[in-house]
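Please predict the structure of the following assembly.
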Amino acid sequence: MAKGSDFLVGIYEDEDVLLEGIRNVREKGVKIHEVYSPFPVHGIEDALGYRRSRLSIAAFLFGLLGTSLALIMQVGMMGFDWPMIIGGKNFIAFPSFIPVTFEFTVLLASFGMVGTFFVISDLKPWGKPKLFDIRITDDKHVMAIDLSKNDIKEEEISKILKDNGASEVNKKNYDDL
Amino acid sequence: MTSESVIREPLITGGKTLHDVSEDICSRVEEKPSKSWLLAMAVSLGALAIGAYCVLMLLWEGIGIWGLNKTVGWAWDITNFVWWVGIGHAGTLISAILLLFRQRWRMSINRAAEAMTIFAVICAAMFPGLHMGRLWLGFFWALPLPNTYGSLWVNFNSPLLWDVFAISTYFSVSLVFWYIGLIPDFATIRDRAKNTVSKMIYGGLSFGWNGAAKAWSRYETVALVLAGLATPLVLSVHTIVSMDFATSVIPGWHTTIFPPYFVAGAIFSGFAMVLTLLLVTRKVYKLEDYITIQHIEMMNIIIIITGSIVGIAYITELFIAWYSGVEAEQYAFLNRVSGPYWWAYASMMTCNVISPQLFWFKKIRTNLAATFILSIVVNIGMWFERFVIIVTSLHRDYLPSSWSMFYPTIYDVGVYLFSFGFFFTAFFLFAKYFPVINMAEVKSIVKATSEKISK
């Protein structure tokens, strides 16, 4: 988005009105910048046309990395670097390696996925959030519309929002957030 | 003919609005600490201080000042370790397994239960750490770190090492799971904060969360995948803890029933601890509309199920000992029931198997006082269970001349007290400065389950 562009901010009280509103506003040809909610709203991704998150693929790949590293470590240490006879078992006693391999897989899958989530969502300690309305984290849903990205006139968008359930419509500049 | 499905009892009562949820939970964080909180904090800090003295003495003198002897080389330390790890399991069960089963009643209790998990796992990890004597060398003994002995590696065939990996992974993953859930709630507190200090602190903790639909969509994926990972993880943790015993050849320990039996026991004691903590939190913070009698009843039902599983496991153990025809095994169990530690066995049986059966009565399982008392009784019973498994299997070994008893010293008690001091100090700090109920999740069910809809 262009720096310092103006936004129309529609405030919604109810998640079902919001979902209906998103569908209607998009049908009218208005491009929605983003919708903000105090809690996860069921079905909002479909209404906004978002693709399913691929974070689960990231988790799988990190998990695969964990499995491989754990096996390489255990086989390398016990089988090659310093082989020792323990309880008459083989040097590479595969069943014994399963618990550590499993734990390491889970550890890397979780941390890798959560780390990816933080990076792609720009979440970091003392990150500065851009809040279109302070009540987003309390009880209001907010639909933000970037005026510079829409060809429709401001007054018309404002009317579309109000006709589709927005309880108030405010104008805000991105730089003032 | 038309029929209407039965409308479920509302999970959140009192006709709360979204703003009421923020108000009820955040005001606990924002208000000045109450007198009762300060008093509770003083008591737990006192316990922590006395315990800290015992821990320092233990580190200075060595574990010889515990009551261990040549025959009973493991006693209260490992008992406490298993007990605390078990308690931790309820948090993950509530947040992960109930999420996978789409049980919405978890939403009011998962935050506090996960906090309990994290503190309980820290308490648990203390004991094997201290038992190593030289805590500061523990990293080299327990982790595969390069060292000057040619790099002599840790033994990956040992269940004790599996435990190191299991507990540390469990702790880290639980912490991350808990924190992911906290981020949106910290953002709520951040946006309500009046003074600069809380703005700074909660601004840092909330990671710049803005509630965007894209972020929520990812958040839900992360929560679901973490739940999917944490479910086998939590089952693996107590399985591996039980393998510390089950893979040995000590009569009384060498049993294949241990993994499921330990996992059921862990959930049993964990739910009891969740109830002990939440009944007090609910009362003090007036959370009756969020943690309803229905929630308490659900937890009591889980207690009766897992308690009965544990009961069956005890009886199976006895049967198999007899049926195996192995004399040493038979003696180990005969000694448990009727030997010098019969009182520990009897306490275990009474507290874990008999008294939870009272929850079959709806009157008792929906009664707060009865639930509170029974939840403490269950945890006493579960402590005795581990004591019975560990000490009574060891104290009469293969040579009658080396048979002995275990008598705890003040340092055994003191280190246990230290873990309690830590646990309650941490929990009280959590209850005061963190949102005790997952606001975002509760808000998502306020509309669907409010009384207005169902009436």
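The mean pLDDT of chain B is 90. Chain B touches chain A through 65 residues (CB under 8 Å).
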